[in-house]
């Protein structure tokens, strides 16, 4: 019987050893070997991270393609995923309502606006509204669309790269190399903006809400916000406000986030205002990426401004 017992004992020990190895393997897959999960709040941040990292990171932009990332709110399952992420990269300046409403672990959150504190633009009358029968009053706020100035996007990318390296030091060389490539890819946009600034400085524009202030500052322009709600037809009060502003300012240009309808375009033209649509790219484009879409939009903007210059110039 003794040899038989020895065989069974050896078999038992081998089984224990195999089980322990399997447990260790599963634990390894569940920690260091799995991709690091990084959650973002909008497409520009997604574009930056996609430009910086490889398969060792998993990037999650939880906002559905047909939802506005500024006001979208996640469901319970998505909330759980977000809270378990290795890193949550937010925009700051109160962009994305869900960031303000969820309890997020501070150690995992990177607020990219902190990297550009010196460049932030605060609008005194960011939001104007009424309470009950009282008169209108306003609240100051910080404009959140930093990436419309590629120089600020590059500074966001610097901060993100450092945080990603802290998360995965082994990827430092790759991330730093990709960061330089990203900055090179932004150079043509800066060149286009330099040309626009040189050719069309000092312009005054209307916009519905605070979106284009960083772009305007980059181009030496002034933005006048109308406090019109996005994608909502202006009411009688809105048109009266515009009429009053036109009597004071006589501004002939307006930037819109989405293409205005024919009726709105015609009515603005009657007020002497020409509209250019510039998508701020808070959501991923259907084709191309941030750089290619911004390049194309800036080309169209230059053509638009050239045409406006010809129209406004007296014939000799």
**Under the CATH scheme, which architecture of the largest domain would be assigned?**
3-Layer(aba) Sandwich
How many discrete structural domains? 2
H/E topology pattern: HEHEHEHEEEHHEHEHEHEH
The proportion of residues forming helix, as a percent range, comes to 40-55%
CATH topology-level name of the largest domain: Rossmann fold
Mind summarizing the main beta sheet? 4 strands, parallel
CATH class of the largest domain reads Alpha Beta
H/I helix tally: 10
Strand order of the largest sheet: 2-1-3-4
The CATH superfamily of the largest domain is Nitrogenase molybdenum iron protein domain
Mean pLDDT comes to 87
Structural class: alpha/beta
Our estimate of the beta-strand percent is: 5-15%
Distance between the termini: 117 Å
DSSP E strands, number: 10
Shape annotation: globular
Low-confidence stretches: 4-31, 129-138
Q: Give me the Rg, rounded.
A: 26 Å
Describe the protein's topology.
Elements: H1 2-30, E1 36-40, H2 43-52, E2 57-60, H3 76-83, E3 87-90, H4 97-101, E4 109-111, E5 122-129, E6 137-142, H5 150-167, H6 172-199, E7 204-207, H7 213-219, E8 222-225, H8 236-249, E9 253-256, H9 262-270, E10 274-277, H10 290-312
Parallel strand pairs: 1-2, 1-3, 3-4, 7-8, 7-9, 9-10
Antiparallel strand pairs: 5-6
Keywords: Signal, Transport
Family: Belongs to the bacterial solute-binding protein 9 family.
Protein name: High-affinity zinc transporter periplasmic component
């Amino acid at each position: 019987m003794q040899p038989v017992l020895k065989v069974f004992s050896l078999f038992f020990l081998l089984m224990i050893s195999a089980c322990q190895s399997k447990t260790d393997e599963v634990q390894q897959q569940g920690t260091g070997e799995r991709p690091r999960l990084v959650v973002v709040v909008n497409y520009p941040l997604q574009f930056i991270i996609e430009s910086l990292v490889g398969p060792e990171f998993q990037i999650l932009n939880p906002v559905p393609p047909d939802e506005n990332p500024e006001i979208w709110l996640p469901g319970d399952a998505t909330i759980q995923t977000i809270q378990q992420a290795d890193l949550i990269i937010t925009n700051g300046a109160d962009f994305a309502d869900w960031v303000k409403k969820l309890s997020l672990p501070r150690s995992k959150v990177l607020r990219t606006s902190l990297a550009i504190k010196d460049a932030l633009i605060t609008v005194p009358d960011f939001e104007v509204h009424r309470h009950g029968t009282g008169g209108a009053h306003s609240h100051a706020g910080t404009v959140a669309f930093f990436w419309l100035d590629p120089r600020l996007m590059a500074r966001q990318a610097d901060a993100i790269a450092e945080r990603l390296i802290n998360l995965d030091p082994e990827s430092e060389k790759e991330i730093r190399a990709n960061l330089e490539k990203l900055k090179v890819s932004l150079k043509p946009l800066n060149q286009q903006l330099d040309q626009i600034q040189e050719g069309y400085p000092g312009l005054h524009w209307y916009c519905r809400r605070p979106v284009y202030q960083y772009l305007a500052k980059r181009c030496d322009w002034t933005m006048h916000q109308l406090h019109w709600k996005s994608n909502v037809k202006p009411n009688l009060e809105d048109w009266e406000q515009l009429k009053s502003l036109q009597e004071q300012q006589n501004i002939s240009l307006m930037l819109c986030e989405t293409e205005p309808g024919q009726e709105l375009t015609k009515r603005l033209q009657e007020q002497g205002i020409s509209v250019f649509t510039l998508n701020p790219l808070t959501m991923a484009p259907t084709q191309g990426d941030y750089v290619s879409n911004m390049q194309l939009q800036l080309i169209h903007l230059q053509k638009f401004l050239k045409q406006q210059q010809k129209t406004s110039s007296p014939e000799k």
